[in-house]
Batch of 2 targets.
Target 1
Amino acid sequence: MRRARRQRPGLPPPPSLPPLPPWRILVDSALPWVQPRLRTMRLQLLSDLHLETEDFEPEPLAGAEALVLAGDIDATWAAYSRFAGWPVPVFVVPGNHEFDGRDLLRALPAFRALCQRLGFTLLCRETAAFTASDGRRIRLIGTPRWSDFDLFGAAQRERAMRSARYFLRLMGATRGGQPLDAAAIREEGLACRAWLEAELARSAVVSSAADSCAHAARRWDATVVVTHFGPSLASADPRYGAQPGTASFCNADDDLLPRADLWLHGHLHCRHDYLVPRVGQRPTRVVCQARGMLDKGEPVGFDPQRLIEV
Ligand SMILES: [Fe+2]
Ligand SMILES: [Fe+2]
């Protein structure tokens, strides 16, 4: 997403907001759980290519078993055809810019039809199953997870929603014929959150008494969540940090993070790769692999040839 100016002259300074979560751990250490494992599924992740204006040619990544497109690939949709015939399955979560100048309710069926035509699996409040080459069953759960503006709590919601006006004007979208304003975005965000929470509450273990083998009774071996918006303040763009406008980029879904093994997102035009501790389990890994805008220097550090393992 393109970001609004930080603060216009004459406006009061932003409120004091909490710092980034202290548990954020960068994946550059020698922790045993980030070392290569014998059984891994390898993903290619791309988002925020903004091919409606950017000059970038996506290429398949050797060794990847699936490609995840996490939104803001092309506001015109035309460049999605570049992924047709991709050598591995393609999973798509739309970003906010896929709805630029469109009506949200009418555009979604058309976008779904486009994905079907191109052979992609659309994940818009949907779950897909994927069997990796190592035999493990991977559950992919996808939703744009629009912003609910509660990143800093209910007391800051109104201020966060006001700060969203600029980017919503840029989008120029509608929903059911009415302007897609912050209130409408919040409604969508809360619906995404409710769906995601219910989906993540499902147990991988089949409860039938007929299942005597614990391994055979598992419906999936790993859970990958894909959202366009960021799931935590820890995913904030370090150029802007914690300010009211950040609530247009990240949600406070920290309580859901431990229910996923891997959480992929876009929307922030920067890169993230961090771990969230879980009791008795490997940490949840959160990855953002956005490219962003060249004229803003955002692709510096962007590595489209980076495999993500789960
Ligand atoms: Fe973007
Ligand atoms: Fe975005």
Target 2
Amino acid sequence: MKKYKIKGGTILLEKGAFLVPAETDIFVSDGKIEAVGDVRDETGYEVLDAKGLFVIPGLVNMHTHAYMSFMRGCADDLPFDEWLFRRVMPIEDKMTGEDAYWSTLFGCMEMISTGTTTLTDMHMFKGDVPRAVRDAGMRAFIGRGLVGEDLEKDGASRFREAMEEMTEYKSDTIDFLLAPHSVYTCSERMLRQIDEKAKELSLRKEIHLAESLKEYDDCMKAHGKTPVRYLADLGFLDEKTILAHCVRLEKEDYSLLKSSCAHVVTNPASNAKLGNGAADFEMLYGQGVRICLGTDGAASNNTQNLFREMNFLSLLHKARNCSPTAASAQAVLRLATANAAEALGKKIGRIEAGCLADLVFLDKNAISLMPANDLASALVYSANGSEVDSVMINGAFVFRKKEFTTIDRDRVLYEVARIAKKYL
Ligand SMILES: [Zn+2]
């Protein structure tokens, strides 16, 4: 593996409670950040001139469905049920594994070129999604979606697929988690079984939770409890649990989330676009709930660009609270970096010795960033992702000077156009 000295860049570093820029060098070897500053012996390092670049930790998209990437624009401005049951699901039913492969690669292209280095993905195409993520060279936590009444009966084949792809594709950069789809598509028995399996196999779990009013009302009717209380009572919530959405919460839910140490992924654009509302970021943040950020799939968000998501999150909550101090740039940047690292238990999301070398290089002279008087606020309020010049994942470049090194861009675009024509 190549060793790099990244020389003279302006690096976004953690200084106490703040993320601040500093001009310094980064030494990368063996897929890791060996040092920030200097090393004892500089022989054997390829020197990269980073003078015109900002270097930030790779962003982490904590909730998406990359296989849906070609569905961008397939069902916009529609009520949730029509969107899901009459548009999205009929396409999914007809999709092949090969379609999912190309669509996932396409999603990886969008994420990489806008500074995302890690994704947490829930999918339904055994092997095809991890194969695409591996070919793209991204870091990921992947879960085959699980639905049903009983893990040993109707849920058995999906669980077997989850185990099989884990055996085949687990690597330095690809991890797996268990992904029960939701409290309305998995029975209580099934959720208990998945929780047991996760503990037995030392895996994380990811589930959609409290996304819509209908889910909330149905859960109250069926169990007499909020979705969060329902999962808490099952013993499902712990520090290895990742909860996507959490829009519909009651006061007590915040303390349950905090005391369980579960991680909430907020997906502001998807929730807003589907008319599901907005998670109460200020309450979550103020109550000390662990929060990170995701885009959700392209069928509901239309983009998997975390710069857009960070910007929208911050502005949405300033507007919602009539408060310019809500969702500060510093807090939002952490959601997409260090907080996500904590949720995944990975040494990513920071530029410091010992962390994995997932780095994003942005053009300092990009019009949208000039003049970056305050780098954190430039990244959240001004950047749109087009400033990304290069991306390194696990010490290797997957995107260099705006060219993909792992993906055949033209082939993927051709395949995606072909697939879209077939279904849309
Ligand atoms: Zn989702």
